[in-house]
Design a protein that fits this description.
Elements: H1 22-34, E1 80-85, E2 88-89, E3 102-106, H2 112-121, H3 134-140, E4 145-149, E5 159-166, E6 171-173, E7 176-181, E8 186-196, E9 201-211, E10 216-224, E11 229-239, E12 244-252, E13 256-265, E14 271-280, E15 285-294, E16 300-309, E17 314-323, E18 331-340, E19 346-355, E20 361-369, H4 373-380, H5 386-402, H6 408-425
Parallel strand pairs: 1-5, 4-7, 5-8, 6-9, 7-9, 8-10, 9-11, 10-12, 11-13, 12-14, 13-15, 14-16, 15-17, 16-18, 17-19, 18-20
Antiparallel strand pairs: 1-2, 3-4
Protein name: Fe-S cluster assembly protein SufD
InterPro entries: Fe-S_cluster_assembly_SufBD (IPR055346), SUF_FeS_clus_asmbl_SufBD_core (IPR000825), SUF_FeS_clus_asmbl_SufBD_sf (IPR037284), SUF_FeS_clus_asmbl_SufD (IPR011542)
Organism: Marinobacter aromaticivorans
């Protein structure tokens, strides 16, 4: 058997498309140079302990996928939309808000001064020592989206960013989004990831948010990529005084799904709410890594993630809350519940609290279990079929979080995909 490569192949560092301002091209070159001889994660790499064996970065998928094809979003979009195909924006398929205080620009359309400012801010929301593949995105992105909300700007409808991979050939896509939310501004941003085609592909995504004082941002992330697509994503957030960030990460498994979410509460009174739902089946794998950095005092965080694993699939949750020494009066709560639908499925959970302040309220908990046989018997004894009883109890396990999704179109799509999952997980025998 051929041994697995230990270093990132040089094929992943070949020059990508050049239709960007020079400051962004310079950033890409700098990030690419830093990745030469980058070791790939192994089981001994702590934050990839359970996922490294699923990572298959072959030369076959190193090249960029062509930015061609017709989009076929699974969502009925009740708002504005921006469409990406294979990491490159498609202006003719996009519908922008016509508002003076909300600016949406492709990276390629930025002036040199704007591009220089952006280049200095990219990667500023992520700890690239632990989010290793954010650097690969910075070395390879061919296009990107800059969203700027002026002070007090309010987007009246959700903005959907639709990321489609058309894998008719093997290759990679590197979507990039940067959101700058001004003082007291407000936006709901939906990121939908899906794919078509059957060839092996890699999607490596980075989305960054900067929230000024009083900004209010809701981010919904829906991952529905196909079985041929490895997906490695990262979301970074920096929050200032009295800002609020709400995240809903909804995902369905694949050969490799990995999402790193890092939130920095840097201004007093900032708060975040992180919800997540993951379902896996077959031999799928999904890994969520979250970090909340309580840097300033009087900040609140609430985190709830639920995983369901069927067949021989594997789900991972690693949540870390770090209370810095000056973050007095912090309130932090983390809860992770996991449901195994078969004896062959596996779920690994690792909640972490690291506290250096002495006047805080913090709690964390994790559970792993199976459907309760007494509850199943109760439902079946009252005339409900065993399959329907399984579905009712499983849906009840995650419905609390699905119901909190604030955009009905996403909620309906999630429900449709969950029904498909239930049909396969609870087939009548």
């Amino acid at each position: 058997m051929k041994p697995a490569p230990t270093l990132l192949s040089s094929a992943f560092l070949q020059p990508a498309g050049q239709a960007l301002p020079e400051p962004l091209l310079a950033l890409r070159r700098q990030r690419g140079a830093a990745l030469v001889d980058m070791p790939l994660p192994t089981r001994k790499t702590e934050n990839w302990k359970y996922s490294s064996k699923y990572l298959k970065l072959t030369d076959e998928i190193a090249g960029s996928l062509p930015a061609t094809g017709k989009t076929g979003s699974a969502l009925a979009v009740p708002g504005y939309k921006v469409v990406f195909i294979n990491g490159v924006m498609v202006p003719e398929a996009s519908e922008y808000p016509d508002l003076n205080d909300i600016l949406i620009q492709r990276f390629g359309d930025l002036s040199e001064a704007e591009a220089n400012e952006l280049a200095e801010r990219l990667d500023s929301t992520l700890d690239t020592r632990t989010v290793q593949f954010a650097g690969l995105n910075s070395a390879r992105f061919e296009d990107g989206l800059l969203i700027r909300l002026k002070p007090n700007a309010v987007l009246d409808k959700p903005l959907f960013i639709i990321h489609e991979v058309t894998a008719s050939t093997s290759g990679s896509a590197f979507p990039r989004v940067f959101v700058d939310a001004g003082r007291n501004s407000q936006i709901t941003l939906v990121e939908e990831y899906f794919s078509s085609g059957q060839e092996a592909a890699l999607v490596n995504t980075v989305t960054e948010f900067n929230l000024a004082d009083g900004a209010n941002v809701t981010n919904i992330r829906l991952n529905m990529d196909g079985e041929n697509v490895q997906h490695i994503g990262a979301t970074g957030v920096r929050q200032q005084r009295n800002s609020r960030f709400e995240s809903h990460c909804m995902g369905f498994g694949g050969p490799l799904r990995r999402h790193d979410l890092q939130v920095w509460l840097e201004g007093e009174g900032a708060e975040c709410k992180l919800n997540g739902v993951v379902v896996t089946q077959g031999s799928q794998h999904y890994d969520n890594h979250t970090t909340i950095e309580h840097v300033a005092a009087h900040c609140n965080s609430e985190e709830t993630y639920r995983n369901i694993a069927a067949d021989k699939s594997h789900a991972v949750f690693n949540g870390r809350i770090h209370i810095h020494k000056d973050a007095q009066k912090s309130n932090a709560n983390m809860n992770n519940k996991n449901l195994l639908l078969s004896t062959g499925a596996e779920i690994d959970t690792k909640p972490e609290l690291e506290i250096y302040a002495d006047d805080v309220k913090c709690a964390h908990g994790a559970t792993i279990g199976q459907l309760d046989e007494e509850s199943l018997f109760y439902l079946v004894s009252r005339g409900i079929g065993r399959r329907e009883a399984n579905v009712l109890l499983t849906m009840a396990f995650i419905n609390e979080l699905v119901a909190q999704i604030p955009v009905d179109a996403v909620k309906d799509t999630m429900q449709t995909r969950l029904n498909q999952f239930f049909d396969q997980a609870f087939q009548e025998v």
